[in-house]
Specification:
The chain is mainly alpha-helical. It is built from 8 helices and no strands. The radius of gyration is 19 Å and the shape is elongated. The two termini are 37 Å apart.
Length: 208
């Protein structure tokens, strides 16, 4: 029996590691500018200035601008993993979906810049980094599909997949321009809309 090939996760390298505080400040500045201007529109000088540093200072922490994007997007993937761990402890699949949706929305509202970049700027990452992100994203969304299929066994696999994508992208899309209402109201409404998209009674007719 052939040995399974090992998969090496992509992790951005750093140069001359500095304080975690400075690195976090750079990441947050980059996320904000990537959201406002897009990855290609945000320059390293602007990112550095927003973090209170000079543009070249970025390269003391990240080897390239690409790796700054990679670090930001992978941080988004890791933040979503905390909600998954809670969902796996839920007593039934419906409750698991509730936990997944509420923690997903909480992550989005806590850092909409990160969520926006995770959904809409990840396509600019190097191919090996995109593969690593897929290793995190696919299992995460697969758990939504697993719990939804268990909750609504009459749904086809195609519809389960569509509902999960629609629910997650609905929240990701909202992060482009969040309405000026309280975070508590947003959290309640967005979580309810995710669950309605996932568990609603309308069944799509998917042609084969």
């Amino acid at each position: 029996m052939a040995e399974a090939k090992s998969t090496t996760r992509y992790e951005p390298t750093t140069r001359r590691p500095r304080s975690a505080e400075t690195r976090a400040r750079l990441l947050q500045s980059a996320l904000s500018l990537f959201r406002e201007q897009g990855y290609h529109g945000a320059g390293t000088n602007d990112i550095g200035a927003a973090a209170g540093l000079t543009g070249p200072s970025i390269y003391r922490h990240f080897a390239t601008k690409d790796e700054l994007l990679v670090a930001a997007v992978l941080e988004g993937a890791r933040s979503l993993g905390h909600g998954l761990a809670q969902a796996l402890e839920a007593p039934d699949p419906v409750r698991a979906l509730e936990v997944l949706c509420s923690t997903f929305v909480a992550s989005a509202l806590k850092d909409p810049d990160l969520m926006y970049v995770y959904f809409y700027e990840a396509r600019h990452m190097p191919s090996e980094a995109q593969a690593s992100l897929e290793m995190s994203a696919k299992p995460y969304l697969a758990h939504y599909e697993h719990f939804l299929a268990a909750s609504r066994p009459e749904l086809s696999a195609e519809e389960v997949h569509i509902r999960v994508l629609a629910a997650s992208h609905m929240v990701g899309g909202m992060c482009t321009d969040l309405p000026d209402v309280s975070e508590a109201v947003l959290a309640d409404v967005l979580t309810a809309r995710m669950l309605a998209t996932l568990l609603g009674d309308v069944v799509l007719q998917v042609s084969t």
